[in-house]
Amino acid sequence: MLRVATPILLVAIGAAITLKAGIFNVATEGLMLVAAFLSVVLSTLTGSLLVGLLLTIGLTILLALVYGMVTVTLRADPIIAGLGINMFAAGITSWLLQSVLNSPGGFSSPETLILPGLDVAAFNNLPVLAAIFNSQNAITYSSWILALLAYLFVHRSKYGLQLRATGEHPVAATTVGISPVRWQYISLILCGFFCALGGMALSMGSIHLFTKGMTAGRGFISFAAASFAVGDIPGTVFISFLFSLFSSLTIRLVGLGIPTRIVQMIPYLVTLVALIFARRRIRL
Amino acid sequence: MDKSPISYPTGGLSRTKSFLLVLREFLRRPSVRGPLLSNLQTLAAILIAVLAGGLLLMLVGADPFTAYGALVKGAFGTWPAFARTLRTTSPVLFTGLAVVVAFRAGYIYLGMEGSLYWGALASALFGIYLSNYFPIFLQMPVSVLAGCLAGGLWALFPAILRARWKVDEVVSTLMLNYVAILLVDHLVYTYFQDPRDGSSAERALTLPVPTTARLPFLSERYGLTIAIMLGVLLALLLVWVYARSVWGFEADMTGFNRKFAHYGGVNTVRMAIMSMVLSGMIAGLGGATESIGSYGRYIGGFSSDFGFSGVTVALMGRLSPIGALLGALFFGALTNGGASMELAVSVPRDIVVVIQGLILLLVTAQSLFALLRLGTKARPEE
Fold it and tell me: Which residue has the higher pLDDT, A154 or B87?
């Protein structure tokens, strides 16, 4: 369950930060897809996990900045431009798979380049905890630390206050000397970073394979998770875990003979139901 | 009658200079300037996207001029090529018009894909199992209508959620699209699967629709049906709706400023539901024209993101029906020409999706703000 949760958790935090800066950022889907693709491909091509991952983070942030330039500076509609980024991501990954990598459909990296798992020795005597916490990969562990850091940054630091002011009332923020534009860009850089990690966790977490369109709406679901919590980090984390719980339950349901397509529907339906219960006006 | 030439007080200016002055004044008129700027902006978005596509082509060692040349020739070069372009134009023309209807009323309804699938399924099933209860000349129209209604019904759900409970339509429709695609495929696969289809057990496929319930072909060889004509008629109808009808005026007013429309006596709850359901019906119609049109049956995964392409198409046309028509034609040419380009320079056609994505990314930069309420949110000047 925790492993399933990691990508959604990370991307949701990224979405939450941009939401706090007042950007209705549906581009998370595309950013995540690009990161999932790049991490597998670049780590294979460079032969080094570290170099591949760093390049992925850099390039994903770059794409987030392109989105930022179009929405913040050129003042495009964030939803429409976000859909544009998603379409671009779907196109470019599938195009590169065919034209450069010559493997339409998917690309897998060698087994040696899988993310390292971590074992916490202290849990070895406690079977339940060991089953939950051990043999999770490095990204899963870092995601919890990053969630904590994000919480401290957004809710407990003076920078977080500036960030939230930007989203809540840009004019008021400007009058006290905060530059909303700068904070929107910063939030997008952070979002790019989190989406990069989320994408990596998806394609290199338990499997080491990228398939065409593999995010399948997870970016949207993460965005939804962030928007229920109105960008508050603790709420976002809670809801991401809740969604992931349902997703991991669905994997069990396939074994019980429930049709695959019905099972695949559950995460989207859960998100929808949550959306109805939240009933909050996210967008003005 | 003999008209004397209009003489402007030139004040000693030369003829050219005075002409330029008049031209400048003309271009400065708000009624001219707005549309001109927004069209320039669309052209700029297309230009940037095409240039970026060219760069990508160069990156993999293909000559962009040869490639784009092949694309244009493959899209418009010959009559068969043009027929295929019209064929690919048809589905996105419907989704594009669906987007126009919802967006003009100010709702970012993105459920076209879902309605498209329900429309395709409903009309195919109606055509196969129920249309023989109708007289022969009605079989095709009622099947089309079934698809249309199914698309509208599917849109009713997010529309009511939006109008009554203020559930954000962007996220709800994005989620419902996935649900629709999976559910429709599941229904077909479980209950209506063509038993003779042994080729691929994973693909949902209904029985073929009887010919009497199918849309007549304009050219069977290129899969071109009268759907394209229906689409053009619908676009013209919408032109009338927005230029002349009360509903069109109220929709535009709601899109411009919902509160203002409300105080002005527009029932905005009903407007929200009506505009989204109408949008769903048009998308459903698009689905119908695919399943009982070109394909003659429901085929799982028949739409390659036509819903989102509709957003590109409609915004390229600045949310005007005729603009959407041109946008759809552009999209059709791009997709169809992309296939020829793939053959000519052996570069995968997905480059076309990249170009489309970039257009969508850039097309709203600056001016859509006037049209969508999102622009009313205060954004400080730096």
Answer: B87
Has residue A117 been placed in a domain? no
Residue A283 lies in a domain: no
- Percentage above 90 pLDDT, chain A: 1
Residue A162: which domain range?
A: 2-110+124-278
Over the range A110-134, which residues count as b (16 or more CB within 10 Å of their CB) and which as e? eeebbbeeeeeeeeeeeeeebeebb
Encode pLDDT of A264-276 as tens digits: 888 888 888 887 8
Residue B25, class by beta-carbon neighbours within 10 Å (0-12 exposed, 13-18 middle, 19+ buried)?
A: exposed
Place of tokens 């991490």: A39
Residue B5 has what pLDDT?
56
Of the candidates B231, B224, B268, B232, the one whose C-alpha atom is nearest the C-alpha of residue B250 is B268
> Which residues of chain B from 286 to 345 reach within 8 Å of chain A, CB to CB?
305, 308, 311-312, 315
> Does the pLDDT value for residue B98 go beyond 90?
yes
Contact between B230 and B292 (Cβ < 8 Å): no
Tell me the average pLDDT of chain B: 81
Residue pLDDT, tens place only, B179-200: 998 899 888 888 877 777 665 5
- One-letter amino acid at A51 equals V
Residues in chain A: 284
Stretch B82-89: mean pLDDT: 87
Chain B residues with CB inside 8 Å of A95's CB? 56, 348, 350-351, 353-354
Average pLDDT rounded to a whole number, residues B347-357:
84
| Residues present in chain B in total | 382
Q: Which of B123, B105, B116, B188 is nearest to B155 (CA)?
A: B116
CB of B202 less than 8 A from some CB of A: no
List CB contacts (< 8 A) between A70 and chain B. Answer: 361-362, 365
Domains in chain A, number: 1
Within-domain flag for A118: no
Domain membership of residue A20 (yes or no) is yes
**CATH number of the domain within which A80 lies:** 1.10.3470
pLDDT value of position A284: 38
